[in-house]
Design a protein that fits this description.
Shape: flat
Radius of gyration: 16 Å
Number of strands: 0
Strand content: under 5%
Largest sheet: none
Number of helices: 3
Length: 85
């Protein structure tokens, strides 16, 4: 069982790499950085699928546009938390 969980952990680390955050330490900044890295990873996947012919340019655009909207909403929510503090 332990070998399987190590394998899954390594696969997740490979598929969803995370870079350390070096900016000013605030929970909101860390959260936004995680959201930004997730956005970047997903855009990369979409671009690769489109380049490989698995997605049309229109579908790739729609998916990236949706991800951008989600990132903007997350940023607004974090900004509201900062203002409330």
């Amino acid at each position: 069982m332990n070998q399987q969980s190590n394998f899954l952990s390594e696969v997740c680390d490979f598929l969803y790499p995370r870079n350390p955050y070096y900016g000013q330490f605030k929970p909101e900044y860390l959260t936004f950085n995680a959201n930004l890295q997730d956005f970047s990873q997903r855009v990369s996947y979409i671009c690769n699928l489109q380049t490989g012919g698995k997605l049309s340019p229109e579908e790739a655009y729609k998916q990236i546009h949706l991800l951008w909207k989600q990132l903007k909403v997350a940023k607004k929510e974090l900004r509201m938390r900062l203002e409330d503090s």
